[in-house]
Here is the input.
Amino acid sequence: MSVRIAPSILSADLSRLADEIAMLEEGGADWIHVDVMDGRFVPNLTFGAKVIESVRKLTKLPIDVHLMVVQPENYFESFAEAGANGMSIHTEVSPHLQRQLNRIRELGCRAGAVVNPATPLSAVSEVIADLDLLLVMTVNPGFGGQSFIKGSVDKVRRAREMLAENGSKAFLEVDGGIDRKTIKSVWEAGANTFVAGNAIFSAKNPKAEIAELRSRCTVQT
Ligand code: DX5
Ligand code: ZN
Here is the structure.
């Protein structure tokens, strides 16, 4: 199973965004993860369409947008237009999840649903056919640099089983506290797409850290 490393630019030095994106590309990043926060669903405020547009100009890598916002549908058109390749929306603020996911697909983007640590996987069980990606949060969203919640490993295992039982080929992504120590446990549990912010950007050699994270996802014989 191929492994995707998706560095989150939340932890990047935004005054050097072009250099940071070039570094991630050279390091072999697969996707660029953009954390959009609205100060309502989560306390922080971060990026909008302008930043996605800037990232788009700097790279051809897929842009994986994580919408930590209420009423995410307000942003679908402008983010797709700005160059997003995938948009993931939180089940906790998406009462019309099936329609919202399909709208994301209509705009030509990969449609993702996100579950917070306290949200059961049953929140997505009726929309598996509408999912291109399932994101299991391994911290409570809102900030970079938090500690991985260990109980997430079993949830990822159950998410993998649920996708397999339904014949889904959706990406299974994890986000929050992913580093050299934690990545293997969620990879073994069935995740194949790994967001990492702090682990990459605070590393002595961020480029090498991407390879290091990837290397932890290999079968030991
Ligand atoms: C958390 C964000 C994450 C965050 C990950 O709210 O969704 O994408 O940037 O950062 P680390 O890897 O530092 O936990
Ligand atoms: Zn994220």
Summary: The chain is about 35% helix and 20% strand. The helical segments are 17-26, 49-58, 76-82, 97-106, 152-165, 183-189, 198-201, 206-215. The pocket of D-xylitol-5-phosphate (ligand 1) is lined by residues 8, 10-11, 33, 35, 66, 139, 141-146, 175-178, 195-199 (CB under 6 Å).
